[in-house]
Amino acid sequence: MAVYINDTCINCGACIDECPVEAIVDEDDNPTGEEIYYVYPDKCVECVGHHDEPACATSCPTEDCIVWDVVGDSPEHREDITEDQRKNQASIV
Ligand code: SF4
Ligand code: SF4
Fold first, then answer.
1. Is 44 in the pocket of ligand 1 (CB under 6 A)?
2. The pLDDT value given to residue 47
3. Are 47 and 53 in contact (CB under 8 A)?
4. Using DSSP, how many helices (H) and how many strands (E) does the chain show?
5. Which residue, judged by its Cα, is nearest atom 7 of ligand 2?
6. In sequence order, what are the beta bridge partners of 38?
7. Mean pLDDT across the stretch 67-87?
8. DSSP collapsed to 3 states, the chain
9. Domain-by-domain residue ranges, the chain?
10. pLDDT digits over 42-75, tens only?
């Protein structure tokens, strides 16, 4: 369960301070070496328990730059998360 920043990122910086779990790093700290912002998939919680939508995507000015329904085999996507899980009353994984 994680969002992904694709190569349409323009390095504007709008998303990084919106993340409640500090999962986002800028291009200088991107472990892939790409000159774009990066989300650590092991840190990102898709804002479940924090916001109704991924806050980074809400703040991003670039359409479809931050995505979350195409990310590999992550265990569960926010669309599948129950209300109890969203309220932290049940485990997400
Ligand atoms: S979806 Fe939420 S937790 Fe994940 S990177 Fe974006 S702001 Fe952070
Ligand atoms: S808000 Fe969007 S375009 Fe700006 S740095 Fe974050 S992912 Fe890149």
1. yes
2. 94
3. yes
4. 2, 4
5. 9
6. 25
7. 64
8. CCCEECCCCCCCCCCHHHCCCCCEECHHHCCCCCCCCEECCCCCCCCCCCCCCCHHHHHCCCCCCEECCCCCCCCCCHHHCCHHHHCCCCCCC
9. 1-93
10. 999 999 999 999 999 999 999 999 998 654 555 5
Q: Which CATH class is domain 1-93?
A: alpha beta
Which ligand number lies closest to the CA of residue 27? 2
Count CB atoms within 10 A of the CB of residue 46.
Answer: 26
Neighbours of 23 (CB within 10 A): 21
Task: Name the DSSP class of 85.
Answer: H
Per-residue pLDDT band at 91 (split at 50, 70, 90): low
Is 62 close to ligand 2, i.e. is its CB under 6 Å away? Answer: yes
